[in-house]
What does this fold into?
Amino acid sequence: MTTLLTGIAASNGIAIAKAYRLIEPDLSVSKKEIQDVGAEVARFQSAVETSKTELQAIRDRAEKELGADKAAIFDAHLLVLSDPELLNPIEDKIKNENVNAEFALKETADMFVTMFEQMDNEYMKERAADIRDVTKRVLAHLLGVQIPNPSMVAEEVIIVAEDLTPSDTAQLNRTYVKAFTTDIGGRTSHSAIMARSMEIPAVVGTKQATSTIQNGDIIIVDGLNGEVHINPTPELLKEYEEKIAEYEKQKAEWAKLVNEKTISKDGHHVELAANIGTPKDIDGVISNGGEGVGLYRTEFLYMGRDQLPTEEEQFEAYKAVLEGMNGKPVVVRTLDIGGDKELPYLNLPKEMNPFLGFRAIRLCLEEQDMFRTQLRALLRASTFGNLKIMFPMIATLDEFRQAKAMLEEEKEKLVSEGIAVSDNIEVGIMVEIPATAVLADQFAKEVDFFSIGTNDLIQYTMAADRMNERISYLYQPYNPAILRLVKMVIDAAHKEGKWAGMCGEMAGDETAIPILLGLGLDEFSMSATSILKARSLIRNLSKADMEKLAEEVLQMRTNEEVLQAVNRVVKH
It folds into this structure.
């Protein structure tokens, strides 16, 4: 019988495939007395050999798909698995204490991890992480459980997980991963944003995907309606195959607009840009008719690795994006780490409230070496395209001035070294803190542009964590309070002759687009997959009519009233 789960439609599209559970297995260990010590040592050695074979395969695949630098992590793991300093004490423990291999492995590995973690040497701390990873793999083999590895998937699957971290998502093999579904998360969680940039359907926040779906179940992920069907009947499968065909037909209609400008019915032009996470996403921007990149999230360069990226690595990534966009504008957001995006190797203290903590520009202004390296890489890449630099999480004018001063200092250093730097780099800020929106008239005198980050602006204005399903009703993009803040920012920019864009999810939202057009937003930046649909919508709207709608909704009292007003005026 088919089971239906409902969740939040996080990324458009429909997929049908086998389930692949991305769930950490239980690796708890108990101490047992062993009679046949020789057999136990042999069992341990066999688990080590199996782990080596697996790691070699992962390493080779990583080198082929991600490059030698990513593969180097697995070289370090293979070295650990051949190190007699680690292996001999485990075997000795089995022989001398007559204990099971799992217990001997865990006790010995924990001792080494603790020892290395307490050292001041950064290299030794990294070895602790290697030992932890490798012994986890060997332990899983001893316990007869499987550690899932999304990068090794070799058939079409739908990923099922409690949640997906950005590094999990970055490892997904796009050829085989057709969709995913999670227990937690919302439309603006990182897994959802990544799904949209990978152009795969996703349904998040189902609350029970992992407890209901088994490995190998056939499932349908309906990212249009927020539904997951487990083991569908033949009739339902047929119905969904027809829906997929229908959706593909609709996409083909939108595709006709790929080379068109985004112009309203009464001749007003706006720019539709894309949000990206890696240089690989550029193909999707071009094929979906993006007129620029409105947000390049550079933090993905820093994630899923065990040390900071070098200036050279960053330069190559920024250059690839700028060249790939062929002179179209590219807004690069400087490092935005913190909140739900952690970098374990920075060893930052745990915070009670990381979303309101030491993150983004606050971290960069303190960790100046890290920040200046990024600024140098950006400046060096600036001659390869149309670069605009944006600082995230700016709360005060002083923060902006400090960040801009550092950028100017690095520019002067490069020029004195004889390195070419573009002379027309616009420098702006992301408006995601209500205080900044309220003071936008003052900021507008000093910045070159604003980009409104509504994902955070909404959660800070409503004092509601956007990751918390229990209060998801407070994530209200159309609340008149939010719309008034957006209007303040746009009006302040225009008064000073500057442009205002939006790179939060709201920019690609069918209900918000008519209002934003009416409020005078200049640039809408969204997931690449939303661009053609948004272009189609804007071409059927008159800006003059939308200005009237915007005036009307700004005087309303609730999110619901605004929603109803838009639905009355705009027929989707």
Observations:
- The domain at 268-569 is CATH 3.20.20.60 (TIM Barrel).
